[in-house]
Amino acid sequence: MFRLAHLSDIHLGPLPELSYRELASKRITGYINWQRNRKRAMFGDTLLRLVADMKAQRPDHVAVTGDLVNLATRTEIAGARIWLDDLGDAKWVSVVPGNHDAYVPGALARAFREWHPYLVGDNARSGPGRHFPYMRVRGPVAIVGTSSAEATVPFFATGTFKRGQALATARLLSEAKAKGLFRVVMIHHPPIAGAAAWSKRLIGKQFFSKVIHDVGADLVLHGHTHLDTLYWLNGPDGTKVPVVGVPSASQNAGGDKPASRYNIFEIEGGPGAWSLTQRERGLRADGSGIDWIRERQLLSNGRAVDARPREDAETADPFRAEVAGDA
Fold this sequence. Notes:
Residues 15-20 and 309-327 have low confidence and may be disordered. The protein has helices spanning 20-23, 27-41, 46-56, 74-87, 107-115, 163-178, 205-214, 310-316, and strands at residues 2-7, 61-64, 93-95, 134-138, 141-145, 159-160, 182-186, 202-203, 219-222, 229-234, 240-245, 261-268, 275-283, 290-300, 303-304. It has 327 residues and is an alpha/beta fold. It has a 7-stranded mixed beta sheet with strand order 3-2-1-12-13-14-15, with helices on one face. A 6-stranded mixed beta sheet has the order 4-5-7-9-11-10. A two-stranded parallel sheet has the order 6-8. The chain is globular, with a radius of gyration of 18 Å. It has a single domain, classed as Purple Acid Phosphatase, chain A, domain 2. The chain has 8 helices and 15 strands.
């Protein structure tokens, strides 16, 4: 059995002191949002406790789906590299960037340089604009990292997934399928219509859906919404592919969003007969400690166990509603 952990939306704090020059950009809106909302909801030892608990579960690999920082300042990006090194060796941790990591023009390139070992595949290519998607093979699992991160104007937190990246992702997934690997795709923004507010949506989700429909995958992981969600995308030959979102790893208890969590995915079986179980662990609602939240089997013998229509899945999800001010 292979055990894959999933963390997202780290939002390392507190914010460093910012210069007037740094605030003379989109960062001013993010700074205000931090002071009004995230400073209270995401600062403390919540993240430290969650990571310690996750390490105690001894996963075989860790996937981090973006938003390590808040305003993508030089100090934050450098600090996030220290946090990643503490999280684990780059061979054990795979990262894709989020919109906050690309908060202003130039930030994503800087993050790529700092976090490089965590953002490249087994056959690393150079340059932040050329290495996505990447693929890493760990045991029976192929981890394909894609990027939806981009700098946007104030009050927007959209991402993009363009045709070129779609074609490259399809090639990697086809290669992984030919090798008989369980295929995991990482992306920051949810590739599902209606899963995020219009100002925070993924532009180009139709390209992502077509890749999954034509080539297939076994699991898609995302962050961005700070919610616990399960959707399904259509794969080849009538198959269904689970799309799983996880709450922010730094969210304190008692807020408008679910408290800090991570997922452990247990992968067993082989080509055409994979089994996948999601075990969700996180902070109790009262903040008293970390416990098991839920367990559900997603795939059994290569087939979806609970592939409800997307509309039903959205309606049934108690955490679906978004809270304004997360851009």
